[in-house]
Amino acid sequence: xxxxxxxxxxxxxxxxxxxxxxxxINFDAIEEVPASENQKMIFADRVxxxxxxxxxxxxxxxxxxxxxxxxxxxxxxxSFKRNPIKIGAWLIxxxxxxIGFLMNFELDTVYTFTEANKAPLCMFILVLCGMINIFExxxxxxxxxxxxxxxxxxxxxxxxxxxxxxxxxxxxxxNDLDETLTSNAVKSFITIGGSILLSIVGVVIAWxxxxxxxxxxxx
Length: 219
Known about the structure:
By secondary structure, the chain is mainly alpha-helical. It has helices at 35-53, 57-82, 85-101, 103-112, 118-143, 146-176, 183-208; strands at residues 15-17, 23-25. It has three domains: 1-31, no CATH class; 35-81; 84-218.
């Protein structure tokens, strides 16, 4: 039986000597290359080989750019496969961006229906929670821990309650004034409704792919 030489920090050498003096490969010490990395290397080799056959500089440049985008897309997909909780984190972060960039719909609606007393406060809460959830999404992606997902869940619940109150308050005001909803009011409902849905789906996915081996000493 081969005697494996152990170096510092208990790292086993990849090449060991047997009793008769012959060298052999210690396959247990060689780390396997992930299938996704192998596919990426094969794809890159094929791209380089194809580029060498293209003589026109412009066509070669266009081909290189397209392949760069393709490799970036493959890396993007592979990152989700390695860490599926990223899907939930992205969905949690999107409402913050969504509400922030489309806030003019909510502002116009609040200014139009000033009698809706609860809507302005709800809009402020929605924007605030959305912004916090953007940072919380990064924490979930990095740690995959209970605390980060719990905070995101609480914020998702606050977004849900605030969003529902906002929509109901605007609708009630419109009915009391016997008016019709403006186009911006409808857009604000879609924005808030979509944010609620994405937040809920995001935290559900985050709980599914939570790292159950997380330890508090990571704090």
